[in-house]
Design a protein that fits this description.
It contains 1 helix and 9 strands, in the order E-E-E-E-E-E-E-E-E-H. By secondary structure, it is mostly beta strands. It has a 9-stranded antiparallel sheet, with no helix packed on it. The protein is elongated, with a radius of gyration of 20 Å. The termini are far apart.
Length: 171
């Protein structure tokens, strides 16, 4: 297993991450000051990434995390979100906590997610505005997402007709 000794420092255009996946789009900048040590199989990350108006967009279900700002601290196999703030589909978003990695796979930790006024369409046609206070625990054997989600308002936007209901029922 080859050893790693790499330093990354400077302002990074996050759009470069979009080249590695078609499911997620990235935008914005991050000020990176990190060192990667350890081995290729078990890298150790140390340093800090400070997000500046970063954006992450997922097509389905439509989710846009925008104006993400704040520090992400890297400490060996631990990633600490220390007051990362932004918007989720136009509503306020706050991320705090830490995630643990083992050989670059999520192995534990706790990430607290606070959201207010988040617009979401799920399932298709049901538009809702949500407030949430959630805790994500990515235990490999028993991952969990717990907490409270409150639907502040909701509207079904697809036209409902008796003829369409009858067709669906096979009448």
């Amino acid at each position: 297993d080859p050893p790693l000794d790499l330093a990354v420092k400077g302002l990074v255009d996050l759009r470069i991450l979009s080249a590695f996946t078609s499911a997620v789009a990235f935008d914005g900048n991050a000020d990176v000051n990190t060192r990667i040590a350890g081995t290729f199989a078990r890298p150790l990350l140390d340093g800090r990434i400070t997000l500046d108006a970063a954006e992450i967009a997922i097509a389905e279900p439509r989710l846009v995390l925008s104006e993400l700002s704040g520090p992400i601290v890297l400490d060996g196999q631990l990633v600490v979100f220390d007051g990362v703030r932004g918007l989720a589909n136009g509503g306020a978003l706050a991320l705090d906590g830490s995630l643990e990695f083992d050989a670059m796979a999520l192995s534990g930790g706790t990430l607290n997610i606070q959201a207010q006024g988040v617009a979401i369409e799920l399932p298709k046609g049901l538009r809702s505005e949500l407030d949430a206070l959630l805790t994500f625990r990515p235990d490999p054997r028993n991952p969990s997402l717990t907490g409270d989600v409150r639907v502040m308002q909701s509207a079904y936007t697809v036209t409902i007709t008796l003829a369409a209901l009858a067709r669906q029922a096979g009448v």
